[in-house]
Amino acid sequence: MTLMSLAEYGPQHDHWGIAWSGGKDSTATLTLILHLIEVGRLAPPKSLTVYYADTRQELTPLALAAAEIMAQLARFPWVRLRVVTAPLDKRFLVYILGRGVPPPNNNTLRWCTRQIKVDPMAAAIEQDLAGLPETDTVLMITGVRQGESAVRDRRIEMSCSKDGAECGQGWYQQVLPNARGVRGRIATLAPILHWRVCNVWDWLKTLAPMKRYGAWATMLLADAYGGELAEEKAARTGCIGCPLASKDLALDGILAMPAWAYLAPLKRLKPIYRDLRLPKNRLRKAGAEILKDGSLAKNPQRMGPLTFEARLWALGEILAIQDEVNASADALGRPRLDLLNAEEEARIRELIALGTWPDGWDGDEPTADTPLDAVYPDGTVQPLLIGALS
Q1: pLDDT tens digits along 209-261
Q2: Residue 321, number of CB atoms within 10 A of its CB
Q3: Rounded CA gap, 34 and 36, in Å?
Q4: How far apart are CA 270 and CA 103, in angstroms?
Q5: Which string of b and e fits 249-266 if b means at least 16 CB within 10 Å?
Q6: What's the CA gap between 53 and 64, in Å, rounded?
Q7: What is the Cα–Cα distance from 174 to 188, expressed in whole angstroms?
Q8: Rounded CA separation 231/244 (Å)
Q9: Burial status of residue 96 (CB atoms within 10 A of its CB: 0-12, 13-18, 19 or more)
């Protein structure tokens, strides 16, 4: 079914791009497609570009596995690799600690995925497409699967018949979200849509490493997820200490392996992100906030950016975690952690020294734990009595 969907939709486009996150599903998709082309079962396009989204926040085993696979791509001279990273000021930790934007949450401020993965990849694709003839089109291939999350499944069920695709033929759509200005020239295809997690493990841990299927370095990746023992819903990974996840299932699974136990200090990241959301570490709009059009903001006295003190405290804590992990790594002869590099640290300190605040904030606002006046729906402001909201 995977081969049929690729054979059906692939020839309709001049160029292919593979969106690769380094995770299990996109890695299975990438290595399978290159194997099918290599053995002559799938006709290659005019060009094939692999877009690797380097978020700078990947779990160490996954980052190492991705590096090994990138090295293996060199044997395909017709494959172009583009490592896509967010601009320095928009990287996860620089954005939080340098600009002062609070860590993302699942309710009102989920900015991370789009900013450090989706937007940089869309920008790279647009840039490449701008250099092609206007009549050329691109097929973006993803590792999206049903069963990975209930929200994603509902989205697929609502749109799997779009643009003439049928269920079982892959999820084919002729629009790539966020690829502004080139919408009519990009389509997407998810050729392993129907795979279950056991199919992914079979490929990554058993078949892909075999010489006849490409001898891919995918066993480390499978082990990092817990391999075939991982449940479908639990077999997902995000950033190290992901603020959006209630539990660090992926990190816990990795720490259970003796070879990776030295990464245990990373468990202290989530509490840091949680503390940064506290009122004492953030500013708050005082009183009613008047917008540019003269209207009253709907969320008066809203909490906002992180104080400089909170940013410097978190920076010190994160650097201490990294130093502790790397000291153990050096002593054990294990891979080092690259969570926050020298360039990123220097930029964070520079932004703090420059007095940088997010748009709409000037730093004169009180901290969010300061008692303020009460603002009522009609705009009336009254003193807020201490204990009145207890």
Answers
A1: 999 999 999 988 887 776 555 554 444 556 888 888 888 878 888 898 899 99
A2: 23
A3: 5
A4: 10
A5: bbbebbbeeeebebbebb
A6: 14
A7: 6
A8: 20
A9: buried
- Cβ(101)–Cβ(111) below 8 Å: yes
Residue 280 reports pLDDT greater than 90:
yes
> What residues form DSSP beta bridges with 189?
141, 172
Backbone angles phi, psi at 7, to 5 degrees: -70, -30
Q: What is the pLDDT of residues 190-204, one digit of tens each?
A: 999 989 888 998 999
Residue for token pair 């919408």: 183
For residue range 140-185, list pLDDT tens digits in order: 999 988 754 433 444 444 344 444 433 333 456 555 444 444 555 7
Which residue blocks in the chain are alpha helix, DSSP H? 2-9, 24-38, 60-72, 92-97, 112-113, 119-130, 150-159, 197-201, 219-224, 249-255, 269-276, 308-332, 342-353
Residue labelled with tokens 């989530």: 270
SS3 283: strand
Amino acid residing at 73 = L
d(C-alpha 96, C-alpha 151), whole Å:
27
Q: Give residue for tokens 């009609």.
A: 378
For the CA atoms of the chain, what is the radius of gyration?
24
The residue type of 81 is L
Task: Convert 56-74 to b/e letters by CB count within 10 Å (16 or more is b).
Answer: bbbbbbbbbbbeebbebbe
Residue 113, pLDDT above cutoff 60: yes
- DSSP-H helix ranges across 134-232: 150-159, 197-201, 219-224
Length of the chain, in residues: 390
Strand-pairing partners, residue 15, are: 47, 138
C-alpha 197/C-alpha 24 separation (Å) is: 9
221's tokens: 């990746």
Amino acid in the structure at residue 115 = Q
Other CB atoms within a 10 A radius of the CB of residue 195 amount to 23
Kindly give, in sequence order, each residue whose CB lies less than 8 Å from that of residue 183, ignoring residues fewer than 6 positions away.
175, 176
Rounded CA-CA distance 265/220 in Å is 21
Give every strand in the sheet of 171-173, ordered side by side.
79-84, 47-53, 15-20, 138-141, 186-190, 171-173
